[in-house]
């Protein structure tokens, strides 16, 4: 399944301008004094530059800085949210709740941790709901992998067992929820995230 991720509008803009100028990623990186991997992240939507970098990008690409700033602002309007749960029926129910509570967010679901990690490498994940027991794998290990990719990802652990709560808090979690998730429990988490989302959730 394909999902439009946070940062994609800017990604499309910067890639289009680079190609229009006949520059390779390496050439743009050289002009910006950054690595090629940084440019690649801008173009795949997994990273957004700060204001100072945008100003220099505008100079290098000979465009109005306000156009780039606008693309960044619009890119940040949609949060990217994932849920990882190895039981298909639970995943489907959870995704339905998340989409209802956060209709403006990009919401993606995964049964396999490896698929979630691959997605996170390409998209700026703002919020991740992770089952603690993922078949033969651990949600704690997945949390660590996601935070290595993006330390500002809010991780909320999901489990049917309250005994896991203490462990969850020691793993960099932003929150902890008992399954099954409900609109009310999701809204409560959104109100208390470590890194608040740019978008507003609808009132319950």
Task: Describe the structure concisely for a colleague.
By secondary structure, the protein is of the alpha/beta class.
- Tell me the number of structural domains: 2
Shape: elongated
Q: What structural class do you assign from the helix and strand content?
A: alpha/beta
N- and C-termini, Cα separation:
30 Å
What do these coordinates show?
It is a single chain. With 204 residues, this protein is of the alpha/beta class. It folds into 2 domains: 8-75, 434 Repressor (Amino-terminal Domain), CATH 1.10.260; 80-190, Response regulator (Rossmann fold). Helices cover 49% and strands 14% of the residues. It has helices at residues 8-20, 25-32, 36-44, 51-61, 65-75, 88-101, 113-122, 139-149, 165-169, 183-190, and strands at residues 80-84, 106-110, 127-131, 133-134, 137-138, 154-159, 175-178. It has a 5-stranded parallel β-sheet, sandwiched between helices. A hairpin with a 2-residue loop joins strand 4 (133-134) and strand 5.
């Amino acid at each position: 399944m394909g999902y439009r991720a946070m940062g994609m509008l800017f990604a499309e803009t910067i890639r289009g301008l680079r190609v229009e100028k006949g520059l390779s990623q390496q050439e743009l990186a050289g002009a910006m004094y950054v690595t090629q991997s940084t440019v690649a992240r801008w173009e795949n939507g997994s990273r957004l530059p700060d204001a100072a970098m945008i100003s220099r990008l505008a100079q290098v690409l000979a465009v109005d800085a306000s156009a780039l700033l606008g693309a960044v602002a619009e890119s940040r309007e949609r949060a990217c949210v994932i849920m990882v749960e190895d039981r298909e029926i639970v995943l489907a129910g959870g995704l339905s709740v998340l989409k209802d509570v956060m209709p403006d967010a990009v919401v993606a679901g995964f049964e396999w941790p490896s698929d979630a990690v691959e997605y996170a490498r390409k998209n700026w994940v703002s919020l991740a709901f992770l089952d603690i027991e993922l078949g033969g794998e651990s949600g704690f290990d997945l949390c660590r992998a996601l935070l290595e990719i993006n330390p500002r990802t809010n991780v909320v652990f999901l489990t049917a067992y309250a005994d896991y709560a203490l462990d969850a808090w020691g793993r960099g979690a932003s929150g902890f929820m008992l399954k099954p998730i409900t609109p009310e429990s999701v809204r409560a988490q959104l109100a208390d995230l470590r890194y608040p989302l740019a978008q507003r959730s609808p009132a319950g």
